[in-house]
Queue: 4 jobs
Job 1
Amino acid sequence: MNKGMTLLEVMISMLILGLAAASIYATFAVVGKGPQKSSATDLQAMNYARETLEKLKNAVSTNSTRSTLLDAGTNKSDAVAGGVFTRTYDVVDIDANDDGIVDYKKVTVTVKW
């Protein structure tokens, strides 16, 4: 009777060991980050960004011709909450299929404090 291990047995044991090590690593990686809580300031900034997007959406839907708020290259900035936050948005025209017609607009809202 042979007293050694076959190559298949070694490979299976390495696979099991690797899976165990990966799960332990993933557990420590998640625990190490801790809970990702948003502060009140973060939430207020997100609300100002949403408010800006709603304002732009409503301006376009209520204007029968075309709103100049969404002209390409538009970069508007204003201070909110007594100057604690600065809200800025940029508009870029996107021509997805290169036919010379604007397919949609990309609006980026930034709120800084």
Job 2
Amino acid sequence: MCLGVPGLILDLFNEGESLMGAVDFIGVQRKVCFDALPDVTAGEYVLVHVGFGLAKLDEENALQTIELMRGMGSYEDELGLGFAGKPNG
């Protein structure tokens, strides 16, 4: 099952005509498209699914969700991480 995953926006930049950003997921950085959320800013938490920012999250809810997902083992699974935060494959 694919889940939306909370992450922290580190930086925003334009790539062609798309608004992109670097997002931190507990130490793993991924590039995310924010065309659906043009009013985001660095330092905000967002919900990300398959590389697209879907919604802003407040910090408290984002951190609670991250901890809940980590407890279930699904946070690392959704990021493609194996043991010790190392990429699978």
Job 3
Amino acid sequence: MATAVKPESPFAEPVAEAAERVLDFNEKVADAGRKLSAAYLDAVDTAAARYADFEEKVAGATKIDWVASTASAHAGLTRELTGAYTSAARELIK
């Protein structure tokens, strides 16, 4: 007994083409998201560095030693924490 071959669905090719377009679109969106995330992290780095610089400048202007040393330590902590946060986030968006 011969087996009958089913003809291919008339929707197979358009569905495959649509799926390919969706995959391409998803790749573009993901790439744009990575670029936006990188720009955001750059802005966070810049803002935190400026804040820490300002804090140290203010700390240097005070005449009270413990205030100056506390503010300077806080500025260093801000830099370290921001660096750790942005480094970890950059690893995730690769």
Job 4
Amino acid sequence: MADSEDVGGALPHLYAVYLGGDPAPGRLGEDHEVVFVVSTDPRSARRAARAKWSGADPKPHIDMIQELDAVDGFEVTLALTGKRSAEPAAPGYEPAFDDDEPLSPPTTPF
């Protein structure tokens, strides 16, 4: 990986991890969230992902883990910057829409 920093003799990789947990009180379905971690191997990526879990269940499980080395024809590389992470670009829910219709701002049902 170009521009990557060597961490303990192994190059770091970017992983996407889909976490799940038992339902919070009053919920019928599992809680889920996707987290991204940088790690040198899948096993340590799993531990790092669990540490980022924000759900009610104290012991999340991993439904999926994927190393991200390329996306849509672009290579993913890592460069050490010292920053923890960026703020979300556009936090919040985006409803489904028809690709042919122009995007409009979300409306509040209340």
